Amino acid sequence: MKTSSALLLPGLSEEAILRWMVLILSFLIGGVAGVCAVVIAQLLMNLSKKFGRNDTSRFGGVVVVAFFFLSQMWFVGSTGLFDMSPQAIAMMAAGMVLFAYGVYQEVLGAFPLKVSFIVLVVFFTSLVSMNEGLVLQATSVGWFDALLAENTMLAIVCTVLMLVYSVFAFNTANGANGLIPVVSIFSVIGLAQIGLGGLGSMLSLVAVGCVIFMLFNITIGRIYIGSGGTYFLGGVLGLAFVHVLNLQQVDVWYLLCLFFYPNVNLLFSLVRRLSAGKAFFGDDNGHLHNLLYRRLGQYTLLKKQANTLSGLVVGAVFAGLPLALANTQVEYNWLVVYAFLWVLYVASWVVLVDRKTKEIDFLSATSQ
């Protein structure tokens, strides 16, 4: 295994780093729940080795997910902070299933994207069909809300596609270490400020788990959130997005700004692939965070931390900026802010892409 060149933890393998992260998690949770967190992490690492996939750095999502579930198990009996509504229970169940599915892909090898798409569509269709509270009902767009109200099937289809898209969007943006945790932290803070009661407290555990994850990776940058973590975050935050839309307490464009980067990054990728005549499902070497990583990696002083640094920068700009604006005393037109983020995204992409060296090579991006 590789050894760490980080000053704080010299000589530690990825497995040892992940174990330390979970030990800190265990201390914060305490008791039986903490012991469970250690067992879960070690089990995943052992499974990875058993099936010949020794890259234990891809199981960092267990830190976020274990903190989310085990904290609730530990505190639910002693506090009234956590929401046990049908929507909250459905979110917890969805998060657990999606994390397990993501881990399965990490351990046994990823399914083709077409298969994953079908699996997610079936899963979310079953989930929202059994819980009417999860179905999209309002978007603040009058004519579209009227269509949703008149056609239940259309509402279910829109909800399912939105949730599937959210999971794929978070998973696609996983190429830069720290990007998805940072985006998730800012998104949860923005959602919690809206006033979600117990559901907001439950979502805050997601942000705390991401913070624990980032405490190590800001310095080391070698543990990834992985498919398990991104599927979990994309699913849970996607469901939270739908829930907040239905409350109609906030401008839909503000919510789109909070979730801007993962969603726009995937959309921009699909547009580029289709315009290039390539398969709808497939790899893409031209994500903005990848381009930034390559540029930062050209500098000797930044080379070792280029991956994590690119995630922090992109996450802070495209998720932190909307949150910062929302906490000022100024009233913003969030549609204008959303358009500005688009301009900033495209301008950054144009500046960072180097067509001479073919940083975007669709020919090597084979369809899965």
Explain briefly what this protein structure is.
The chain is an all-alpha fold and 368 residues long.
Written overview of the protein:
By secondary structure, the protein is mostly helical. It has one domain. Helices cover 68% and strands 0% of the residues. It contains 15 helices and no strands. The chain has helices at 14-29, 31-50, 61-75, 86-108, 113-130, 142-150, 152-172, 179-192, 198-217, 226-247, 252-258, 260-275, 288-296, 306-326, 334-352. Helix 4 packs antiparallel against helix 10 and helix 5 crosses helix 7. The longest helix is centred in the N-terminal third of the chain and has 23 residues, at 86-108. It is globular. The protein starts with 13 loop residues before the first helix and ends in a 16-residue tail after the last helix. The model is unreliable at 1-10 and 362-368 (pLDDT under 50).
Question: pLDDT below 50 for ≥5 consecutive residues: which ranges?
Answer: 1-10, 362-368
Total strands: the figure is 0
Mean pLDDT: 79
- CA radius of gyration: 20 Å
Number of helices: 15
General shape: globular
Find the structural class using helix and strand composition: mainly alpha
The biggest beta sheet is recorded as:
none
Strand content: under 5%
Can you tell me the number of structural domains? 1
> First CA to last CA: what distance?
29 Å
The proportion of residues forming helix, as a percent range, comes to: 55-70%
Helix and strand run? HHHHHHHHHHHHHHH
